[in-house]
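task queued by scheduler; priority normal; single chain, no ligands, no partner chains; default sampling; output format set to structure tokens
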Amino acid sequence: MKQNRFWSFLFLAIGVLYFLLPLIGTFEFSLKMRRGVYSLDAYEAVIFDPRFQATFGYSVMMALATIVVGVLLVVPTAYWVRLKLPSWRPVLEFVTLLPLVIPPIVIVFGYIRLYNTSSWLPLTGTAMGTNILLMFGYVVLSLPYMYRAIDTGLRAIDVGTLTEAAQSLGAGWITIMWRVILPNVFVAVLSGAFLTFAIVIGEFVLAALLNRPAFGPYLQLIGANRAYEPAALAVIAFAITWGCMALIQVVSRFAPRPPAQPH
């Protein structure tokens, strides 16, 4: 037993070092912009760069829009499938997994082909239309994570009993969704929202090929033309991603647990 525990801790330590050493090296390099001393000059240059503020603000707004549309799409669909169409659940799971196996570049080229200025719906002809197209692309990329988070939340509650109780009190479907189902899966929705936020902030392919001023293309541009600022941006992006992961862990503590199965 002690020998197994030793090997477990050894492999864990190797994994932690493999993960942390590059990050520590990147962080140290980002502090060397001023010769001979450690400083935050690279972080200051990045944060006060107008392009950073514009692109990061744009990506935050796109992330919020993606979260809203994703919740409006996934929550009613997952709820209805669980309540009325349980046999369709494997089909829905398969569909939501497709963005993991279809490269984003294929998705965006399909969008450009289908919604270009000569098509029946020329979304790429205007900035607003392209923003809408990009937002729906982000919704597609976040589907696997948003759906699984919400489906897990729905499994933790008795959807049928809650629906019957609400209907017996005269509630309609919109009221049931807004005042009964959504509050009970709110923690799961937050988990999916944090994952979606992390995906949108760092996404490059869709934003670059649709020529939108997002944070991902800005990261690539700075990385190709600067030395210390890309390291600072990498640390910032890493902190944002892991901040979202930490928030997921915090909110998951308040999630309802699945009911115990009878023996």
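post-processing summary
- The chain has twelve helices and no strands.
- The chain has one domain: 50-252.
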